[in-house]
Amino acid sequence: MIHLERPRVTVGFIPLIDCAPVLFAEVLGLYERHGLDVDLRREVSWSNIRDKVALGLLDAAHM
To answer: Which residue in 2, 14, 34, 46 is deepest, having the highest Cβ count within 10 Å?
Structure first.
């Protein structure tokens, strides 16, 4: 297991078909298996995700 400085990760996504890997990783328990506490956040627009990543409100995003 990799040691992370920040095990809690907030990931934003737009509910489109290509976000499936991000969502299925949660369903399959892959985040937990790798020691990550992932908080998935559904966002309403690409610009919303861009701004939240820039401001540090999201750690990562499906873009």
So the answer is: 14
- pLDDT of residue 13 exceeding 90: yes
Q: What share of the chain is helix, strand, coil (3-state, %, to 5)?
A: 40, 20, 40
Q: How confident is the model at residue 52 (pLDDT cuts 50, 70, 90)?
A: very high
Element (H, E) at 31: helix 30-33
Contact 12, 58 (CB under 8 A): yes
Report the distance separating Cα 45 and Cα 12, nearest Å: 10
